Fold these 2 entries.
Entry 1:
Amino acid sequence: MKSVKNKQWRLGVPRALLYYYYGPWWEAFFQALGVETVVSPPTGREIMDRGVGLAVAEACLPVKVYYGHAAWLAPRVDVLFVPRLVSVEHKAFICPKLMGLPDMLRAAIKDCPPVLAPTVDLARRPDEGLQAAIRAIARALDVRVGEAAAAGETAGARYREWLARQREAGAWLGNGPPGGCPAGRSPSPGEGQAARGAVPLTVGVIGHSYLLYDRYLGLDIPNKIARLGGRVVLPENLAPEAGERACHQLPKRLYWTLGRKIMGTALYLMEQASIDGLIHLTAFGCGPDSLVGDLAERYAHRRSKPFLLLTLDEHTGEAGLNTRLEAFMDMLKRRRTA
Amino acid sequence: MSAIYLGIDVGSVSTNVVVLNQQCQLLTSVYLRTHGQPILAIQEGLRRVVATLGRDLEVAGVGTTGSGRGLAAVMTGADVVKNEITAHAVAASYAVPGVQTVLEIGGQDSKIIILRQGVVTDFAMNTVCAAGTGSFLDQQAARLGIPIEDFGRLALGAQNPVRIAGRCAVFAESDMIHKQQQGHPLNDIVAGLCEALVRNYLNNVGKGKEILPPVVFQGGVAANAGMRQAFSRALGTEVIVPEHFGVMGAFGAALLAREAGPKVSSFRGFELTEREFRTGGFECRGCTNHCEVVELKEGKEILARWGDRCGKWSNAVAV
């Protein structure tokens, strides 16, 4: 690694994939240690095009976009922070494509800076797994383990506050998790609803956070629904236990953490009378999504809850997507008046 | 002078205009090729309406649909702008009350709409593949050297339809060439192609959908008797092709305009056929997204802009 004193590293954090789940934890942690972090800007066309060019063809679009963020950061930082998240909870796992990110990036990016890639594996013993990851970062940064552990406590507290804030929001008002649109058009609360006068249609929008909150990659679907007069409920608005409980009705436990979270949210929401319909946003090429998407759709059909599956890839045309969303909202509206 | 409703469907391949009277009867319909020039197609469509019905028309409402619905709406001053799924469902429900399944195949897209008790309960559109749509059939007819109008009739005369891989337009074509080289008669190949396309449609667009009769088949491809036969065989039920199957989107848009019942239509008048409209585009450099912004101008006046993600340009024009 570079000769600069480790604590003075500029640490690059790609604003993609798991950043949308754990970004606040990471930022608070490094801030507590006094390490400067640079988070890449929100996804835009340049970053996406760059990522699509660099990544292997069979990766899903969110992974490709991650490459774009890493490539943007590469010339601007001393070290890239690409944690290898194997598992974030007991006996459940993160997608293997995400586990392999550090290696794939080193191979794909020309002049790739050193990669700080602590392994996070909580599958067997959650507490020890996290401590081991923090110790690994402490070693790499050359700080005392005690200091890093304290920073971990601070980060954990900040992260839990962030989760609680999201839940309190109840329905999304455009001020969601990290990210945000470069050109910033978030709907003001109630935009598009007042126009219709009636009780707004409530739509559950489910999918990976890195699709729902990345406005470029995810084509800003939550906001589009808000503009069509819908009230949006996102997975982060629910208490995690609600989805976890709903998952018990499945014949078998899903061992992909993110997939189980999506499935649980879907099952919970489709049982709520207040939810008019569900939209599931998936990425083409995502293994877990291909199963969860179909599973969720089948359960929704059995409960006759309107369900729209949208699959994104780099060729997704916005026009076709808008047509589907409009038709879906029309369908919900006409169902209600029928 | 009686009040009429205009429905305009600007699709990738065709632009259709339908005129309904107060009683929802179809007074006239126009079916034109868009030829990539939606503005000219819309103007020509309206010109033909005037040519048939005369100038003495009171337009009580205008509805637009299809992929060019936004453009058409700004140009004509539409009262209702609807996506093509809703428009097709409304039209099918009107033509065949109680319809439970709508199969629609147009120039470049195909969709399935499931209705129960007159309300749409589910739908799907083709996503990544255009095999089986009108454009593909057009192309194959041209390659085989048969007019598209004869395509269906040829298929009906088949004795033993050959099996063709309908999964992909390119593979279907190479499969057809192979069957031709082997010496299969043209009838059997054409019928085999229809069956393959129907299979592809039911497995992709229709995947997981509960297809119950009455089944309505509409869109330009419904003109093809071979496709009609293949659908009714595959589904084991009668397939109803409504009278105005080729212009159902426009029909639905007109019905929706009537349903919306504007007191005064914002229609900009049939004079717009003689005005000069132009579109232009530029790439916005305001942020890293580099959106391709399109603007529609009438003379020097900018009527509308779209294509920007943030709304900086589209909001700058008061519509």
Note: The domain at 6-165 of chain A is CATH 3.40.50.11890 (Rossmann fold).
Entry 2:
Amino acid sequence: MYIKNSTQENKIFHNRAIIAWFLMLLFLSLIFARMYYLQVIQHQDYITKSEENSIKILPLPPTRGLIYDRNGVLLAENRISYSLEIIPEKLTEKLDHILDKLKNIIVIEESDITRFKKQSRQKRQFNSIPLRHRLTEGEVARFSVQRHHFAGVEIQSNQSRYYPLGATGVHAIGYVGRINERELKRIDKSNYLGSNYIGKLGIEKYYEKQLHGQTGFQKVETNVKGHIIRVLERTSPIAGKNLYLNLDIELQKYTEEILSKHRSALVVIDPKTSGVLVLASMPYYDPNLFVNGISYKDYNALRDSPERPLYNRAIRGQYPPGSTIKAFVGLAGLEHGVRTKYSRTWCRGWYSLKGQSHRYRDWKKRGHGSVNFHSSLEQSCDVYYYDLAHDLGIDRLNKFMKRFSFGKKTGIDITGELGGLMPSREWKRRRYNKHWYPGETVITGIGQGYMLATPLQLAVATTTLSNHGKFKQPRMVFAMDDPKSNEMSIISPIIQKTIHLKRQDFWKTAIGGMRAVVHSRRGTANKVGRGSRYRFAGKTGTAQVITIKQSETYNARRLKKKFHDHALFVAFAPLKNPRLAISVIVENGGGGSSTAAPIAKKVMDHYLLRK
Amino acid sequence: MNMQTRWTNKHFLHLDTTLLFGLLTLLTLGLIILYSAGGQNIDLMIRQLIRIAAGLGIMLLLAQIPIQKVFRWVPWIYLIGVLLLVLVLLIGTTSKGSQRWINLGFMVFQPSEIMKIIMPMMITWYLADRPLPPSYGRIVVALILIVFPVLLVAKQPDLGTSLLIASSGIFVLLFAGIAWKLILGFLSLVGAFIPILWFYIMHPYQQQRVKTLFNPEADPLGTGYHIIQSKIAIGSGGIEGKGWLNGTQSQLHFLPERTTDFIYAVYNEEFGLIGAGILLLIYLFILSRGMYIAAQAQDTYGRLLAASLVSTFFVYIFVNMGMVTGLLPVVGVPLPLISYGGTSLVTLMAGFGFIMAIHTHKRFLSQ
């Protein structure tokens, strides 16, 4: 047997037991101290984190406003579109396997898969990620039948912008598209949290703020999988405003049909309201292609087409206005006292500056003989305006023309308008660091040389002339309504002014000359005026695309089509109480009287004579 | 004390009502919080109630047996336990990356769990009838007896259980009175062992858990997720807590393993610092009563076994609370008698059965 010292062992044990108990107390106190630290000292911090975990703010996107024409025809609407979405977490089979099976019933391109995989790496696995947008009805039906084979794959319905008339009016209406990164930097992100689209062009872009509306929000409690447990707070979205345009879509469509053979643009303005009735640029394209992202193939085809369908000729096409500006140059002569309506100029077929041998040719080789303002407009005599421009000088001419919005933007409510060019000494020095030559003033008198104008500017200037100087900003939109309150608000032009000439009858003289263009026997466009059921005023224009050498003459048959002259025509009708002002340009169309004037007449007839 | 002895003599059942009161209070509180943590799942509650009933039954049963009779069988049970642990590594069932179970056909059985009870009994058996403090030779043998099964369990791998088994054996040595210089030497040895543990024994997932402890935010969606969510749950509870069934972290499932290892976070989110204080007091009550029983035991066997079992119970509490509050790495140790799960509950209750037996069978020796 071993000798055990019970007392000694007992003592040691009791000693250790007491130490152990105190150590336990110490460590439990340590835990309590830790709890105090977490639950009292850091409490606020963790309360915040706990709420961040479970409380989420979800955007409620507003419905985009609709766009109607002046007669209530729907031009842009929101349709339900279906997209195929995948929740990776819910898939029961391998992704590649699922995709192979899906390809049998739905068209899935390689680019769809690439985009899907990129997005799925950026999001958590319980999020729904789109694979294909804009499913056809057939695809939706085929998928619905076989839905049970595809756990984790769902069809989601979204509101999608749709333009029921397709390409008609696209250069006026524009289109929406998915928000890109550049736009993301510019916009108020919180207002676009749930929005898929943003206006990219045209009215859709200019009126983006009104069309988009105000995003609503709901504060929800979600569980760890993101499912909503309950709604804590809700602010309803405010739908975008509906727009009513001045555009007459029926006339627009008719115009586009007439223009369809040409690269061309046509603008019609109602002189009373300065509302834009037609804004056509041809060729055009279907805006629906752009809404959910255009394919590279389609986009390249549009971009690389030599006809340049994406180019909005009506507001961005800057052309030499040619003879269409002669009425305004003539008015400048009267206003500055350089000419009276009786002053006569002898036209022998060419003009030259003193001491220079260069001959500025008239379109009529033999000349027009003695002409005054009226007959120079009627026959479009160039020499009268060469001489007049020279007498006025570029500075006075520039100032006067600018009063009619030449060389500056008209302020139309479409994004992207260009202002054309009204040259001056000052401009040439800044632009080219060169002196202004007198010869340059001479050709500016017939709208050649540096001067450029857009079809919209020509229509606006013609409107001003028809109104005897009353100018208003051209307007695409005439009213907006608030879908909630149903209140309609009229949009009136912001800038209104009147051009006061020294004598009110100057207007009559200019208009009389333009009336003679179409209604007199010698008028350059008398063919279109003959037999007209209403009286109107017009002016032809032919703009040279290339310079013809002194020793050569213009011969369309020997020139390539792209060097043919541009054909222009401006008009307003009827003569008394005009209801429309119009400008047409046909690129490389040849003569203004032969190509442009008949087009304008058809459009005017359609508008004025239809029942 | 005499009153107590007389009372137990008079009655048929051998049990310590004071300890039983502490345990029942704890189990009740456990059921209350499990109801909330489990999402008010009645099936879950019934399963836990069955386990509690089984645990109480085993406790009552073991409390009736004089502890000396059990000790006769201890070396054999230890031997069988070690053999079973070897068997687990050879033919065990694998689940969640570790091999812990033996499938007996009618039930799945976890030998490492039994080792938690056998280990302190084995070391007590080996040391108790020789003079204490034990000789160096005996300490070495005792350490070998401890290390061998601990390594087998660590190999499964089951870090939490091997830690608990090791501490239950080491506590016997400590209470047996080994010299302080040896304890210090041992601690420095453990310190030296840590790099070996890190580089040769620990699995990458275990290493990750330790790394996560020091910087949970480095991987918030991966390994740090448990700790971050647990701290958010506790911290957002505040002093009064969010109220029973109202903890968002647990009710909305942000907190993982909320019925098992992380139930303490649910408790604190809903009952706050006040609840934490109450729970710690209940645990302290049970620990104190256990240590008191150990101190009152009349032979070395009872003394060492009771003190070791109580201390191991404390290790459970400290390791679980430490990991849930972010003080210790995540080693799968449940909150004793509260976490959902069968085996540890039954083993712990069996341990308390032995402790009660030690207290209520004293008269045999005293006369």
Note: The longest strand of chain A covers residues 74-86.
